[in-house]
Design goal:
This protein is an all-beta fold. 0% of the residues lie in helices and 51% in strands. The protein has strands spanning 2-7, 10-13, 18-26, 35-41, 48-53, 59-61, 69-74, 79-84, 93-100, 112-113, 117-122.
């Protein structure tokens, strides 16, 4: 069983930056954290994949965040990060961390999920 806890959300103005973190705990970490991802869900909208990363650090991004967001991971700390720059009001959502041993890419089929951290971007 893997537990995921997100942090780092908050309120920023358009053009600002935030860094989200997701701490993984439980046993065993691997292979159930081989593939990790960030998703987001705005009120009244479906959950959408933002970025994913494999155990070797190879990322995949949604078109809507390419060039603005950077996903990374520190396997020694069992922590996933999402650096968000040039934030826009449309980035406002609850952001969730997810993990699995299967590479679901941006599909919301991951086995393990955190409870989310809220990001609000004002214009």
């Amino acid at each position: 069983q893997v537990q995921l806890v997100e942090s780092g959300g908050g309120s920023v103005q358009s053009g600002g930056s935030l860094r989200l973190s997701c701490a993984a705990s439980g046993y065993p970490y691997s292979p159930y954290t081989d593939y990790m991802a960030w998703f987001r869900q705005a009120p009244g909208k479906e959950r959408e994949g933002v970025a994913t990363i494999d155990s070797a650090g190879r990322p995949t991004y949604a078109d809507s965040v390419k060039g603005r967001f950077t996903i990374s991971r520190d396997n020694t700390k069992n922590t996933l990060y999402l650096q968000m720059n040039s934030l826009k009001p449309e980035d406002t959502a609850m952001y969730y961390c997810a993990a699995d041993r299967i590479n679901w890419l941006l599909l919301p089929n991951y086995t393990y999920w955190g409870r989310g951290t809220q990001v609000a971007v004002s214009s």
